[in-house]
Amino acid sequence: MNIFILEDDVFQRNRLENLLEYLKTEKGYDLHIVASTENPRELIDLIKNSSEENLYFLDIQIKDEDKKGMEVAQIIRGIDEKGTIVFVTTHSEFAALTFSYKVSALDFIAKDLDNVNFDKQIEEVIQFVEKKNKKDEREMLVINTKFKDIRVPLDEVLYFETSSQPHKLILITSKKRIEFYAKLSDIEGKHPKLTRTHKSFVANIDNAVELDKSNLTIKFFNGEQCYVSRRKIKQIQTLIDEKL
């Protein structure tokens, strides 16, 4: 996680730096302080790209300019739409202004909190960003159709089957069932893990746990099943064996 700090009070800047170092060395958080400065331009110049890994701790009042931190946040958001912005300030009354500045700040943390509560809130922010990043690391399967776009985690996809309604497919995941307009031939080329098992089915073999050759079915980890044609049995068995 890349940390950027904008704070003109040396005591407060050191307080935050020391806490982050403690969280890194004693609690194992993957933290890297890219910038810790009172100079807005210095911080902005060090932003290399837009990333969920970027976390910004900004004071609002910088060198007697009441809303300087808000202006900096606005510039940051123009460069980095994915990063997380947190204001560490004595000016929590400016919270409502984040809407007019359109900076999408995650939180306002008061500088005058006692150390226990201050440390707790900073760690909660880091935990939130860390959890969000882990969630974002999941590979997504995106299917663009004429009427809607479907986006699901690939590791939740079990299989696709043709619907009883013409020109429609049914996507079965470990959590839900989605019906949409498409052809199986469009789906099987979407990802290497998606394999045609039958004229009416495309399956994610990564989630298969057993091939029932007698009943010509593939069983998945949650009990769902789909069909496999006889001519595909050898290929599917090989794919299942390779992943186990």
From TrEMBL:
GO terms for molecular function: DNA binding; phosphorelay response regulator activity. Gene3D superfamilies: 3.40.50.2300, LytTr DNA-binding domain. The keyword Phosphoprotein applies. Residues 2-126 form the Response regulatory domain. CDD domains: REC_LytTR_AgrA-like (cd17533). The keyword Cytoplasm applies. Residues 141-242 form the HTH LytTR-type domain. It comes from the Bacteria. Required for high-level post-exponential phase expression of a series of secreted proteins. This is DNA-binding response regulator. Keywords: Activator, Cytoplasm, Phosphoprotein, Two-component regulatory system. The modification 4-aspartylphosphate is found at residue 59. InterPro entries: CheY-like_superfamily, LytR-like, LytTR_DNA-bd_dom, Sig_transdc_resp-reg_receiver. Pfam families: LytTR (PF04397), Response_reg (PF00072).
